[in-house]
Each structure stands twice: as structure tokens, then as C-alpha cells.
Design a protein that fits this description.
Number of helices: 6
Number of strands: 5
Strand content: 15-25%
Number of domains: 2
């Protein structure tokens, strides 16, 4: 297990929890619908299903939806917060801290635009391997900036960056004095995050709107019952 995998382990675990929550909610919502379908499928032609059984199943489905939808919207908020932290707040915090990191000469061993395969398009990311010395100890890093995100656009820009750090050349990297194994070539903001950073907040917005709607609906229903 490499250092990046270990560093992102809390994020990976949280993603599994959120995805698992979505799956459980989906199954819980599908179950009563499936039961209603089966009650109809077992009825002979010309007959009608028992209305009491169908009504009971429909009420059961409504109660599950009423309970599970707020949970679903809460998961939207949680997912948005997780992505916001790992893809926006955490990198921005490192950008701020790294302004005080010392610059060190590093040797570029290799550089390329790595091409991965997404669902529909190719994913392009910068891969630069370099070594540096800090306090008489040698380290190796692959980190270009604090985002390290691949994308299906911006190939030409990434190619220009890779060409700047050609194999065998020297450059400056910035080293975390508290953790010398952590270094970065570019400590500035990534222009590609200008628009991508809003995606996690969309999840948070949808979740908050959904939760507020259900709270207000619950208050209205309660007022009607008490009136």
C-alpha cells in the first residue's frame, strides 16, 4: 500500500460508508414496490387484488419513503462535505501553509501526461517523478500540486507543464520542514479547480433543500393533525 493510499484512507472509508448508505436506502425503497408488483402479478386475469393488502403495502411504502428521504438528503450533505474537504478546503489549506516552506533544488527523473480511461473519456493527469535532499537526506516525490486530480480536459496545458519539467533537468520544489517527505513543485492554486470546486457544494445544497422541505412538511402535517 503506497503513501498516497494510506494518506487518503479516511476519505476512501467515508466514500464506502456513503455509497453503502445509498445502496441500503435504494433497497429499502424498492422492497415495498416489489411486493406490490408481486401482489398484482399473482392475480389471475379478470380478478382484482385484495384492496386491503394493497393499501397496507402502499402505506408501508409511504412511511418508508417519508423516513428514508431525509436520510438520503442527509447523505447528500455528508457526501458534499466530504468532497469539499478533500478537494477544496484541504488543498487550499496546504497552499496557504506551503507559502512558508523552503525551496529546494530537485532533480527531475521522468515526466509525462498520464492517460487513464474513464467511463466515457480519457482522463489526463500530470506525473512527474523527482528527488531532492533535505537535511542531508534524500527523498522522492511525485506531487506536482496539491490537487493531483485527473480530468478529461486540459491536455495541452498539462503537456506544456510536463515539457517544462523535462527528464534530467533541475527545478525548485517546496518541502514541508515538519514532514520532509512531503514536497510539491507548484504550490499555487490549480486553475482547473475554478469551476470544479462548486460541484461538491451542489450536493450540499440539494441535501439542505431536501431536509428543510421535509422538516416544513412535517410541521405542516403536525399542525393539521392538532387543529
Amino acid at each position: 500500500m503506497n503513501e498516497t493510499m494510506i494518506h487518503n484512507m479516511p476519505f476512501i472509508i467515508l466514500i464506502f460508508i456513503v455509497v453503502g448508505g445509498f445502496i441500503l436506502i435504494f433497497r429499502a425503497l424498492i422492497s415495498p414496490i416489489n411486493r406490490i408488483y408481486k401482489s398484482y402479478s399473482h392475480v389471475q386475469d379478470g380478478e382484482t387484488p385484495d384492496p386491503h393488502i394493497v393499501q397496507e403495502m402502499q402505506n408501508n411504502m409511504r412511511s418508508k419513503i417519508w423516513f428514508l428521504l431525509p436520510v438520503l438528503f442527509t447523505l447528500f450533505i455528508l457526501m458534499g462535505c466530504i468532497f469539499s474537504y478533500f478537494f477544496f478546503f484541504k488543498p487550499m489549506n496546504l497552499v496557504r501553509k506551503s507559502q512558508n516552506w523552503p525551496a529546494v533544488v530537485c532533480n527531475i527523473h521522468s515526466s509525462r501526461v498520464r492517460v487513464g480511461q474513464g467511463e466515457d473519456n480519457s482522463i489526463y493527469s500530470i506525473e512527474i517523478i523527482y528527488s531532492y535532499k533535505y537535511n542531508d537526506k534524500e527523498y522522492t516525490s511525485r506531487k506536482y500540486n496539491f490537487w493531483d486530480m485527473g480530468s478529461s480536459f486540459g491536455y495541452e496545458r498539462k503537456k506544456e507543464i510536463v515539457n517544462t519539467y523535462s527528464s534530467g533537468s533541475e527545478a525548485f520544489c517546496y518541502v514541508n520542514p515538519e514532514k520532509p517527505s512531503q514536497a510539491v513543485l507548484n504550490r499555487e492554486k490549480d486553475p482547473e479547480m475554478k469551476y470544479l470546486k462548486f460541484i461538491p457544494f451542489v450536493f450540499v445544497f440539494i441535501g439542505i433543500i431536501g431536509v428543510i422541505y421535509h422538516i416544513r412538511k412535517f410541521q405542516r402535517d403536525k399542525a393539521l393533525i392538532n387543529s
